[in-house]
Design goal:
Radius of gyration of chain A: 25 Å
Helix content of chain A: 55-70%
Strand content of chain B: under 5%
Shape of chain A: globular
CATH architecture of the largest domain in chain B: Orthogonal Bundle
Structural class of chain B: mainly alpha
Distance between the termini of chain B: 56 Å
Oligomer: heterodimer
Number of strands of chain B: 0
Chain lengths: ~650, ~260
């Protein structure tokens, strides 16, 4: 079960774990300076990356030599076996990679917002501080990602030499490209992080552009490595000859059925993941904060992290739907195995996890409203929102076909429960998830306007239009969901589901298009009291990070597991002792272990970074987020500089 | 996290195991044994039940209850067994009205039934309301997956000498005591290997010689007869030569190694 999409970064670098160092501190004139001791680290990371890159470049030849020498297609990893070794390392590597690719995406957006708001103003400087904090977290995880990537590469070359040879024969040029992109990204991120003060003032646009460049390079890296893993999943059948040789072009191999859907799905999922982990970090710092100012700034950071995560989470199911659609398009058997075969129960577990994510995110928003004067107006509605979410959760988690004994089937009246079985089908689940997304958006909308009273003369009309849009959207989603029971599956899949999705997205766009001008210049009912949120909210942020990490592991198992006993589906069969795809319980045990290892490593890295910064924080007490003294008055809940 | 793990462990645990290869080449198989083997393939390796039911409400594909009887009427002039064979190896040739063209060629990867398995599957389908009359010869010689999965198996070129392997087969290996290979040997004790090179993988052949038990027993033959000692009895060269020889056996009357150049 190689997760070769993670074939990746090579290069141990244990010198830089602390290099993200909260060691950049602000001087009295507002400039950041980095202590000189980071200099050594600065010079060591590029060297380590250079060495890692060289390892990567020589790896294909190494693998080919191993395979051509007539040795076995497999070698055994001591004690735990090859599959488990590759599984654990690739999953942790993917977690780190997702984090360092996801966080910079929203970090640069936040930096941009701060820049446009004006760095001479407290709001602008606060966003700039937050962007820097996020990049700092990325930086901390960078070298560990490279280390794990290198380890994974070595495992694949040594344990699966024949597989590696086959892949490298096709993808060698992309591996060189990958190495080049990785070098470029490393130096770009370096410049972005350490050039924060150097490229300030009138040169800020260069710095923001650098952040965008980092993201472009990171996304390119993601796309390149995705081509490998998606080729394993959906190799182009018409480009494989009878002997299993690939006879197409490199582009044919790259641009396979699932490449673009997985690109999009992973890109969005990385943002969610980055947001949840960054929010959990903020929660960790919030709970350990010693001053009100510190608590306020990490309360705000946690809010932004969760906001980013929840925003991306709302569109993630749609990307997942597209991916599933393409899997069916590639191979019906694979699609059916995934959704209706031995993996069908996996989606019930997934439903529970996503339900926790939706409920947790909303609960955090509702708790956050308690620190906003004026939010009392909206509290009575929360129970209805909770009801819709809970019902949606239950529908989504309803299995269609239960594996039951004869006696149980008799008592139930058939293989499907006569009433609940109705909720187990796709039509019901699509309806449920769309309603949950609408409800989550409504929660955010209430949070956003919690301390605002619209003063526009057309506000009443605007509100009515918004409610009408919500009502109409709900009616369309439910209507199509019910009608979906009476049409052919192809109609439901190709027409109704996209229509439901389109309706929800359009509603979000329309409602926001009304909301933003309607609340411009709104009367405030009081400032948000940052730092006064209930501590239990921070545990919710941690829960969200843990749940999403676990979910990533589960989805990794799903993506890899649907290949069953094939390294490359339909082309290269897995004839190793690990060819069987394990049951969900075993997979869950491994996922939990990888999640614990990942979170443990993250905590350790963040702790190391905190050690470096602590002395400086004490020396520069009170120099946190500019303008962040608790309770901090901010006239709104949104992430925008003026919201 | 504990709750997620507990829940995932509390639901039915389904493992997906790689399918086993079935070999019926040269076997004395009764129709009942064939149908029984075919039913297992239908429900297992063939993945037929993913889309088809037998006497049920139907699924993504047509219900196959009674298909053995109605297969002869689907395409005028096409006998039942020919229609069923075509349905398996070239399903797009004829589509049952109102069903989409989604069925894969089952003798190609990823399902990859070999010739023996196709034979058994057709026999099972014939048994559903019809008469089992399909013979191995009714399955086209070109049908059947290069089992073992495309590249992994097909790209292997053994360094052995088939001619020397033929000598091992007839001499030191004493294989002819039980097996037939083209014009060599005639004993009915073990399966006829005259076509084994076309129907089995390198992995299977190598494994069957070194560890016969690990590859199961061909239907219609008693279990545990083949010695487990060839690994000790043959030198590495003899072993590779023997495998190379067996892989040249792709039908025909004469032992091909005698005339064929080195593989």
């Amino acid at each position: 079960m190689e997760q070769a999409g993670a074939l990746a970064r090579c290069g141990p670098d244990r010198t830089t774990h602390g290099a993200f160092s909260a060691t950049t501190v602000r001087t009295e004139d507002g400039r950041r300076v980095s202590p000189g001791r980071d200099l050594a680290r600065r010079s060591l990371l590029p060297l380590a990356v250079l060495a890692a890159g060289l390892c990567l470049l020589t790896a294909p030849a190494w693998g080919q030599q191993a395979a051509q020498s007539g040795e076995s297609a497999y070698r055994a990893f001591p004690y735990i076996g090859s599959r488990l070794a590759v599984w654990v390392i690739s999953q942790i590597h993917l977690n780190f990679a997702a984090f360092i690719l996801g966080v910079p995406i929203f970090a640069v957006i936040i930096e941009f917002l701060g820049w446009r708001a004006g760095l001479d103003r407290p709001e602008g400087r606060r966003f700039d501080w937050l962007a820097h904090e996020f990049v700092k977290l990325t930086f901390a995880a960078f070298s560990t990602t490279a280390l794990l990537g290198g380890l994974l590469l070595f495992l694949l070359i040594t344990l699966y030499p024949k597989f590696w040879t086959y892949m490298s024969q096709i993808f060698a040029p992309t591996m060189w490209l990958y190495a080049a992109l990785f070098f470029l990204e490393t130096f770009a991120v370096y410049l972005w992080y350490y050039g924060w003060d150097w490229l300030a003032g009138p040169r800020k646009w260069i710095h923001v552009s650098l952040g965008i460049l980092c993201n472009l390079l990171g996304t390119a890296i993601l796309f390149v490595s995705n081509s490998w893993v998606t080729f394993m999943l959906s190799p182009p059948k018409d480009k494989i000859d009878e002997a299993g040789r690939f006879v197409g072009t490199l582009w044919d191999a790259v641009n396979n059925f699932t490449w673009m859907p997985i690109n999009v799905h992973r890109l969005i999922a990385n943002i969610v993941f980055g947001g949840t982990v960054a929010a959990a970090y903020a929660a960790f710092r919030f709970l350990g904060a010693r001053t009100e100012a510190e608590r306020a700034q990490y309360d705000w950071m946690g809010y932004i992290g969760n906001f980013v995560a929840i925003s991306a989470l709302m569109v993630l199911p749609f990307a997942g739907y597209w991916l599933g659609f393409e899997i069916y398009g590639f191979d019906q058997t694979m699609g059916i195995t995934m959704m209706g075969g031995f993996m069908s129960w996996l989606w019930i577990v997934q439903a529970i996890l996503i339900g926790v994510l939706f409920l947790g995110s909303n609960y955090y928003l509702w708790l956050g409203m308690e620190r906003i004067p004026g939010s009392e107006r909206y509290r009575p509605y929360i129970k209805y929102l909770l009801l819709v979410l809970a019902l949606g959760f239950m529908v989504w988690a309803t299995p269609h076909t239960l594996i039951a004994s004869v006696e149980e089937v008799r008592r139930m009246g058939g293989t499907h429960h006569k009433f609940l079985g109705v909720f187990g089908v796709m039509s019901a689940k699509n309806t449920a998830v769309n309603l949950m997304i609408l409800t989550t958006f409504l929660s955010y909308l209430l949070y956003r306007r919690a301390n605002k009273v619209a003063t526009r003369p057309w506000a009443r009309t605007g509100m009515a239009a918004q409610w009408a849009a919500f009502g109409l959207a709900a009616a369309v989603v439910v209507g199509l969901g019910v009608y979906g029971y009476f049409v052919e599956p192809i109609v439901r899949i190709r027409r109704f589901s996209p229509l439901q999705v389109g309706t929800v997205l359009l509603t979000i766009a329309v409602v926001m298009a009304i909301d933003i001008p309607m609340f411009k210049g709104a009367r405030s009912t009081g400032a948000i009291r940052w730092g006064t949120i209930a501590p239990r909210s921070q545990y919710v942020l941690v829960l969200l990070a843990v749940t999403f990490t676990w979910l990533m592991g589960l989805m990794g198992f799903a993506r890899s597991g649907i290949r069953q006993h094939w390294h490359i589906y339909g082309v290269m069969r897995d004839t190793s002792p690990d060819a069987a795809t394990p049951a969900l319980g075993y997979a869950a045990n491994i996922i939990s272990i990888t999640t614990i290892l990942f979170l443990g490593m993250v905590m350790f890295i963040f702790w190391l970074g905190g050690l470096g910064g602590r002395g400086h924080e004490e020396a520069h007490a009170g120099e946190g987020a500019p303008g962040m003294t608790a309770p901090v008055p901010i006239s709104g809940g949104g992430p925008g500089p003026r919201s | 996290m504990g709750a997620y793990t507990w829940y995932a462990n509390s639901i039915p645990q389904l493992e997906s195991k790689p399918p086993e290869e079935l070999s019926l080449e040269g076997a004395n198989v009764t129709p009942e044994q064939l149908v029984s083997a075919g039913e297992k393939i239908f429900q297992g390796k063939g993945q037929c039940t993913t889309c088809h039911t037998v006497g049920g409400p139907g699924g993504r594909g047509p219900d196959l209850g009674g298909v053995g009887g109605r297969a002869a009427t689907r395409k005028p002039g096409t006998p039942a067994k020919a229609y069923l064979v075509e349905s398996l190896i070239n399903p797009a040739a004829f589509l049952v009205p109102n069903y989409p063209n989604i069925m894969p060629k089952v003798d190609r990867a990823p399902i990859g039934l070999n010739r023996s398995e196709l034979w058994a599957a057709v026999a099972y389908l014939e048994s559903l309301g019809g008469t089992v009359d399909v013979k191995l010869d009714d399955i086209p010689a070109t049908a059947g997956a290069p089992a073992g999965g495309g590249a992994a198996a097909a790209s292997i070129e053994l360094p052995g000498d088939p001619k020397a392997g033929q000598a091992v087969f007839a001499g030191k290996g004493t294989c002819i005591a039980c097996h037939k290979a083209g014009s060599i040997g005639a004993s009915p004790l073990g399966p006829d290997l005259s076509n084994i090179g076309a129907t089995q993988t390198v992995d299977y052949v190598m494994g069957k010689i070194l560890d016969p038990k690990s590859k199961g027993t061909v239907s219609g033959f008693p279990a545990g007869v083949m010695p487990q000692t060839f690994g000790q009895m043959l030198t590495a060269k003899e072993y590779i030569d023997l495998v190379s020889f067996l892989l040249t056996l792709k039908g025909g009357g004469a032992a091909p190694a005698a005339a064929a150049p080195k593989a």
